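URGENT: need a sanity check before tomorrow's submission.

F., can you look over the Tubulin tyrosine ligase-like family, member 11 record below? I want to be sure the sequence and structure line up before it goes out.
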Amino acid sequence: MRMSDHAVKVEPDHTTASSGDKDNVVVTEELVLDTSPAASLSPPVPSCVPSAAGVQGSATPLASKDKARSRSKMGRDDRSTEGKVNTDIGYAISTHVGKHLNRLRGEKVLQIKCAGRVMQGKQETNGNSTHQRPRDRHEPGNKHQRKKKPVTVDTSKAKTSLEALKMSIKQLKWKEFPLGRRAACDIYWHGTSFHDNDHIVSGQVNKFPGMIEMLKKINLSRALRTMHELFPEEYNFYPRSWILPDEYQQFSAQIRGLKDSDAAAHRTFIVKPDSGSQGEGIYLIREASEVRLAAGSQARQAVVQEYVQRPLLIDKLKFDIRLYVLVKALEPLQIYIAKEGLTRFCTEPYQEPNQKNLSHVFMHLTNYSLNVQSDNFVHSDSQSTGSKRTFSSVLYRLASKGVDIKKVWSDVISLVIKTVIALVPELKVHYQADIPPGKPGPTCFQILGFDILLTKNLKPVLLEVNSNPSMRIEHEQEVAPGVFEYVSSPVDEDVKVCVIRDTLRLMDPGLNKHGHPPPAGGGGAAQQGTVITTKAGPPDKAPEEEPGDGLPTLCLKQVYPKYTKQFQYLCLVDRIATLFLRFLGIKGNMRLGPTAFRTFIRCCKLSNSNLPMASVDILYIDITRRWAASTQDSREAGMGLQAFVEAFFQLAGRRSKAALLRDQVASLLEVCEAHLDGPLSALPVAAAVSLEDRRSLSRGRAMAREASKLSPSSSSSSSTTHPPPLCSPAAPRRAVSHDQRLQRSRHGPLRTNLEN
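Structure tokens as predicted:
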């Protein structure tokens, strides 16, 4: 059973939004469940080469140059054997040669072996060499064009997703390189991270730099917490969380407060290690004293969350949803959601947590890697039974009980879009650090695994996001006592192969180069009463979503930028990240130095009597020190993006009297963007660094002296350099303007901020 194309409807949600929040919207997906058997994924073998008018005989190779004749032949050997196209076209002569014979007279027409290209010309003998003028393959007489080269995929780093990837490549009739390739490939499929292969300078990689770091429990919680501060109604789908050990005291005080307010209340919390996976290290607690902070001699970072105590049950079992999401690009942001997903069931009937059953992982944790070890785990070939089922089978069952599955699906889509919007700002910083503008490098895309829990009232709750969701299509099974082997899992194969195959189809370099991508969509906040209705199929289907080559319709549905107007108002942090990237200054850096922060304040004219530069320095020092202490793996000094966002929030609160933080931030963003697009944009950002800044920052002087040796080459450049536009993530180029050269001649060398 699979979901077919469906209609989408977006309308405002008036039930959960506050009276002042008119921008909260709900995406409504109208699903049509198809219970018919899935069509075969293997396209039919194409027929043999059709005959063409004017073809005389078959085209055969020449034994020697002396066998050339001025005969008019036309042929093309285009056979297909077991899905493989024979690229050796052979030799052909255009049918239009005959009409030129009177002009050519006794001159010979040559047959040239070329991949699908017909060439004609005048033979000139000069010793042993023969020259001819090639014929343009776009001339009317050349009907047989060069065949499109198959897309090449490097699968040498694919790891556990290799089997599903091989099946997908075979269905697409692309070319796989399982051991890598010296020449560049079109697509590189990595199993873990972007850095599985650090020597890629072109093509596309299926991992974003920094995605693993961003989707760790702590960083994900911080990103969603920041968005919750701005939009509490929209970002209420993630459980309240605390970061351990930094926020242990706040967590302990929270539990005491709950007990004081309601002595009978016994909340349950779940502790998740920051870098844990597959359920490893997860446990439930009811008291703060039960937190296990130590792991050996060092404190282990973790996230503690409120446990969802009333989940939706099917067959008395708790379950979660694994939904696959493709982030096709960051700039502009493109998001696709798989129409089909997996549901993973617990293997022990659910009971509300109490002190006796807190350790029953088969009851409370839905992780497949844990429950597969249970004796009650059921491997099934059916999509609607067993311990792992398809998402559509669950929706079908809910629909049979009167549940509004359109509302369920719309809430899930909103959750996904909002989560990705929260992740994008930090991902852009990582992307620029690894692939700076102007540096050769690949483009990136990635499949993410969203784990979502439905509550009893059908509200979706985000559990976590996986940067490396399992793409295995087999499971281990005991075929004899003590003998195990891997057996194919039909449910996994039906879902995962489609996701990988259609991801490759969307990333086809030929399609991305010559196709027509969907429009980026308009900006601005969603207006009350906005309704967008789309139907599956033409006329509003994007060209890249149309099936071709005998393949089924894409299982991935675009949701962004399709719904940009409904969610653009949530991108405040993304606009802050654009400011952050503008003032970084040096390629590959991810931290903002003190001079660059002061430059940001001066360029945006944020310093005044209420905020002198001394207060700016104190703000920078306080926030940077606190974030450095809470980030154990920090390798660079300075202010990261999350710290810069906190500083921006404080600056916005000082300047604006608006009641809501998001209004304060939006107001400050408008001020900054207006000043940066004004007269200051005519000068490099580095020109705003004053003598006072340079005297107060002695740490950058040594590096400045080293870099001053390179100043002649920079001073010989153009007189004025404009910074990049505000919408671009590119770092500002540090050039020397005419005014700066005058200042250097009067006041000595200008020491720019080089520690940034």
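My own read: The longest helix spans residues 405-434. The chain has a mean pLDDT of 73. If you see anything odd, call me.
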